[in-house]
């Protein structure tokens, strides 16, 4: 797979994660809200070929009033190897004003309940 496919898989995982914490498409549309990625960092650790089975695990690292920072870990289930890791920071937006806005309290609570520690490849390398 080339870079486009890794990023695409991580994007799908982002929407799955946002849905899990209550930021569904229906909620975002009804409330005129959106999400904007403001930082991404990816480490490619193992080659993945088209057709390989993949799983993406997501762990929130930090939940602030308007910002989520989380990590996706792409795993090859057959071997348990990590193929790639992406850290992303996203901002919750008012889609009309294009300004950041606070997450609903229930969304923050759901996300905070999932916060964990993840060793990031770039931290391990120095």
Tags for this model:
126 residues; 4 helices
Description:
The protein is α+β, with helices and mostly antiparallel strands and 126 residues long. The chain contains four helices and five strands, in the order ααβββββαα. The chain has helices at residues 3-20, 25-31, 105-113, 121-124, and strands at 33-44, 55-63, 67-76, 81-94, 99-100. Strands 1, 2, 3, 4 and 5 form a five-stranded antiparallel beta sheet that branches. β3 (67-76) and β4 (81-94) form a beta hairpin. The longest helix has 18 residues, at 3-20.
Write a brief caption for the model:
By secondary structure, the chain is of the alpha+beta class.
Helix content: 25-40%
Structural class: alpha+beta
The profile of the biggest β sheet is: 5 strands, antiparallel
Distance between the termini: 27 Å
Tell me, briefly, the overall form.
globular
Average the pLDDT over all residues and give the rounded result. 94
Oligomer: single chain
């Amino acid at each position: 797979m080339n870079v486009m496919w890794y990023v695409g898989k991580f994007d799908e995982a982002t929407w799955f994660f946002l849905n899990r914490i209550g930021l569904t498409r229906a909620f975002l549309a009804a409330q005129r809200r959106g999400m904007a990625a403001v930082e991404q960092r990816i480490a490619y650790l193992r080659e993945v070929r088209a057709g390989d089975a993949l799983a993406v695990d997501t762990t929130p690292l930090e939940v602030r009033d308007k910002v989520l920072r989380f990590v996706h870990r792409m795993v090859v289930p057959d071997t348990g190897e990590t193929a790639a890791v992406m850290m992303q920071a996203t901002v919750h937006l008012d889609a009309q004003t294009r300004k950041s806005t606070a997450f609903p309290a229930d969304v923050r609570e759901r996300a905070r309940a999932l916060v964990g520690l993840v060793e990031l490849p770039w931290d391990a390398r120095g």
